[in-house]
Amino acid sequence: MTIFDTVPLVELRERTSIKWSQYPPDVLPCWVAEMDVPQPAPVVRAVTEAMRLGDTGYDAEGLNGEALAPFVQELYGWEIDAATTRSVPDVMIGAAEVLSLVTERGAPVVINPPVYPPFAQFIEHAGRRVVRAPLGDDGRLDLDVLDSAFARASGGAYLLCHPHNPTGAVHTSDELGAVGDLARRHRVRVVADEIHAPLVLRGAFTPTTTVIPDAIALHSASKAFNLAGLKSAVAVPGPDAVDDLARLPEIIRHGVSHLGTIAHAAAYAEGRSWLAEVLDGLRANQALVEDLLAAQVPKARWEPPAATYFAWIDLRAYGAEPSRRLLQHGRLAVNDGATFGAAAEGYVRLNLAASTATLTEAVRRMRLALG
Ligand SMILES: Cc1ncc(COP(=O)(O)O)c(C=O)c1O
């Protein structure tokens, strides 16, 4: 029994977020990054109190950086100066705005497919050009590939996903050091999306800016504390990027949700024991799905990752378009690998932040659909 076994499926189906509204009710939704959990009690209290007070006005700058500092100090021993951070409406808008700060219009921005699909979309929306440096077959950074991509992206930037969505790889401090060397040599600025950092299940998380001083990182409680609908995020500059981030136009914070910031601050301040339960539940769910797949979908290839709540599963041995067939024949919704990068056709991303019953049923549907 884990925290994921506490909200019954009938109650989850009353939720109206995209996970629960995109497909008809006979489809089991194991796709988008939302968790099937009860909300952290301190967040419920803080948001309820805000509503009681009518505290639904504009957000005042600074709350998020101050809220983040003790949390990351405790988790990673990372000292950040709250005064240098900047509130941004959410991680992707923050990433696009930071990329706009550190590069010229039309500049190249490197990404590592397979990667969170909006990376490419937001880079293009920001008027920059996507340069692809695929991960290696092991789902980790390929430094040779990065070297040649950075050579083509000189004067541009690199949008790093740390930990990586969808493979769950947590970049080591050696890897980050090598990235920093390459970035300096090729004059590429590093912007790190660290939204999944609190979801490291094994090993240590090294904050990017502690290794690459002119990087800028983006943080949010939205993934780890299941607050995607209560948007808020914060940009954190490395010691050599403080002046750059200070140039972020003041109007950007006008898009910050005050209620979101209240929720995120409560999660950071008082959500540690809830987060520990989530991490325990995810480790248990990784083991569960590993056993279920081995028994019922034996040609599936998957390594339980060190972070995130995804299983990035290679189903190529079962033929083309597995996600379409899972939906059509198994009534199971997963994310299609190809949306993370064309070379990932044949992979699917299964959301592990779900109950034992849901994951057991998901793998049963996989077996039925893939035959
Ligand atoms: C790597 C990554 N970045 C950003 C986001 C979205 O964050 P936000 O809603 O704060 O833009 C997600 C959501 O799943 C994600 O996985």
Describe the structure.
This protein has 371 residues and is of the alpha/beta class. It folds into 2 domains: 3-40 and 272-370, Aspartate Aminotransferase, domain 1; 55-270, 3-Layer(aba) Sandwich (Aspartate Aminotransferase, domain 2), CATH 3.40.640. 40% of the residues lie in helices and 12% in strands. The protein is built from 14 helices and 12 strands. The protein has helices at 9-12, 18-21, 41-53, 63-76, 91-102, 118-125, 143-152, 173-186, 208-211, 242-246, 258-270, 272-296, 322-330, 356-370; strands at 28-29, 86-88, 108-111, 129-132, 157-161, 189-193, 216-219, 233-237, 310-314, 332-333, 335-336, 347-351. The chain has a 7-stranded mixed sheet with strand order 2-8-7-6-5-3-4, sandwiched between helices. The chain has a 3-stranded antiparallel sheet with strand order 9-12-11, covered by helices on one side. The longest helix has 25 residues, at 272-296. The chain is globular and about 55 Å long. The two termini are 30 Å apart. The relative contact order is 0.17. The mean pLDDT is 97. The structure holds pyridoxal-5'-phosphate (PLP). The site of pyridoxal-5'-phosphate (PLP) has 15 residues, from α5. Pyridoxal-5'-phosphate binds at residues 33, 90-92, 116, 161, 165, 193, 195, 220, 222-223, 228, 231, 233.
